[in-house]
């Protein structure tokens, strides 16, 4: 197995997590703010897609997937952002009626990533693409970072969904 094969396997993990979340998020939980946190499950899912989309488009130099989905979300210019640095009000304004569109968006972003990976050779992974960090960031390190961030946010959403299920099944006194 070479580096591209490993990254391709890793890149499928967000899609697997989305498949596990499908059908398990109640509409009331999608936009809830557990513990008063500004980032809801809706925000976590939207941010997952945006960070995958923006960073992968930057790597391959092509278009983002977002324009194909933008109108479905009705978020206006806020939806064009990636979520880093959102004020509490901005984070709380990422609201959806259901998760199906955002799941589809994440899956389309994963497809874009997989298509990009198919164009690379192992040697491409060693190319330094960002000298603003020490050590400098290679294409391979950036790709791992992008997928790792997506997996972390989807796991956060899954944890909240699981906790809601645990609350429903806990004994009532």
From TrEMBL:
Top-rank taxon: Bacteria
Annotated DinB-like domain residues: 16-156
Protein name: DinB family protein
Species: Gulosibacter faecalis
Pfam families: DinB_2
């Amino acid at each position: 197995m070479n580096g591209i094969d490993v990254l391709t396997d890793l890149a499928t993990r967000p899609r697997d997590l989305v498949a596990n979340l499908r059908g398990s998020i109640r509409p009331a939980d999608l936009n809830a703010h557990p513990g008063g946190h500004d980032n809801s499950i809706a925000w976590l899912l939207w941010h997952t897609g945006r960070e995958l989309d923006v960073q992968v488009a930057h790597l391959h130099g092509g278009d983002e997937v977002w324009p194909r989905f933008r109108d479905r979300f009705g978020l206006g210019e806020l939806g064009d952002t990636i979520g880093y640095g959102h004020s509490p009000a901005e984070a709380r304004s990422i609201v959806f009626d259901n998760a199906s569109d955002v799941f589809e968006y994440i899956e389309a972003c994963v497809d874009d990533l997989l298509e990009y990976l198919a164009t690379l050779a192992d040697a491409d992974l060693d190319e330094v693409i960002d000298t603003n960090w020490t050590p400098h960031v290679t294409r391979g390190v950036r790709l791992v970072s992008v997928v790792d961030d997506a997996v972390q946010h989807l796991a956060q959403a899954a944890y909240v969904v699981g906790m809601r299920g645990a609350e429903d099944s806990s004994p009532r006194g």
